[in-house]
Amino acid sequence: MKDTLISPAVEFYDVVTRTHSEGGDALRSVLAEVDPSAGAILDVGAGTGRTVQIIAEAVPGARIVAVEPDLVMRTVLTHRVVADDDLRSRVTILADDAQGMAIPETLSAVVLYGVLGMLDRDERARLWDRLLPRLAPGAPVVVELLPIEKPQTLPPMPYAKERIGEHLYEATLRGEPGEDDLMVLNTTWRITGEEGEVRTVHGTSQWHTFGLDDLARETGLTAERLTLQAGLLRAGG
């Protein structure tokens, strides 16, 4: 994986995932059918641990491997795991990226939220070459993707909104086409209180665009859309 700059907006990661909670609901639904005896559950790009928490609740007893290369988010992830007796006994944290991570011998499920768009086509191909042979029969691969299959201009739009204490956090998102299949995404966060604007934070990231059908072709797995931004890949028809 290419080196990437940490966005100044990383502090708002959990505000975004809370606002867009439908991906977590879809993940719970899929994982409810997973047999933890079939292998570990691999969470690639585990972030601050929100998906780890969902996995642990949806699949009691499952061994979870959480992969997160970003130091800031991994620090929060570690705090979350250490503070919970159940998570502490079940979750192994790897400070690796998707290309360099150690993969358990057998996987009962794979979660790829917020990470696939950071990989170009060749990098995804290498990831699939490593992951697919480790999947237990019928193991689900739950993915997150932008609802945009090709680079395009996105006018500013509301992205997230949350009140925390006496402050209101509001974000807008806009996008521009980059090179090849890349989208350049810009977020602007405005934090306001009773006296007006407290501060403004700008963040920029890049995301390789693709569709769920593209992932099905890359993997040879069947695909099912779960929500606007979540999809399921699974062997068999």
From TrEMBL:
<keyword id="KW-0808">Transferase</keyword>
<dbReference type="InterPro" id="IPR029063">
    <property type="entry name" value="SAM-dependent_MTases_sf"/>
</dbReference>
<dbReference type="InterPro" id="IPR041698">
    <property type="entry name" value="Methyltransf_25"/>
</dbReference>
<dbReference type="Pfam" id="PF13649">
    <property type="entry name" value="Methyltransf_25"/>
</dbReference>
<dbReference type="GO" id="GO:0032259">
    <property type="term" value="P:methylation"/>
</dbReference>
<protein>
    <submittedName>
        <fullName>Class I SAM-dependent methyltransferase</fullName>
    </submittedName>
</protein>
<dbReference type="GO" id="GO:0008168">
    <property type="term" value="F:methyltransferase activity"/>
</dbReference>
<feature type="domain" description="Methyltransferase">
    <location>
        <begin position="41"/>
        <end position="138"/>
    </location>
</feature>
<keyword id="KW-0489">Methyltransferase</keyword>
